[in-house]
């Protein structure tokens, strides 16, 4: 599973958890149907809707070459009532 990079925890995403909506960053090349199928299979939930948007590109200039640092988009996944995704935990070392 390389499409979903990580879950996003901002003020807005924490508010959306109360509405059964989960936010995560995904690869820009993955499609909405791929992400929906993966979430339904991996977590065993039913997805109602998915919204996505591309974040503003942050670039940096290294001498004559200008490169972009972000290559992902943000997905907001809405689940049916009664379903939830377990909290993601960081691995302790």
UniProtKB/TrEMBL annotation:
InterPro entries (alphabetical): Nucleotide-bd_a/b_plait_sf (IPR012677), Ribosomal_uL23-like (IPR013025), Ribosomal_uL23/eL15/eS24_sf (IPR012678), Ribosomal_uL23_CS (IPR001014)
Pfam families registered for this protein in UniProt: Ribosomal_L23
Signal is among the record's keywords: no
A single Gene Ontology CC term: ribosome
Main function: Binds to 23S rRNA.
SUBUNIT field: Part of the 50S ribosomal subunit.
Name assigned to this protein: Large ribosomal subunit protein uL23c
Protein source organism: Wisteria floribunda
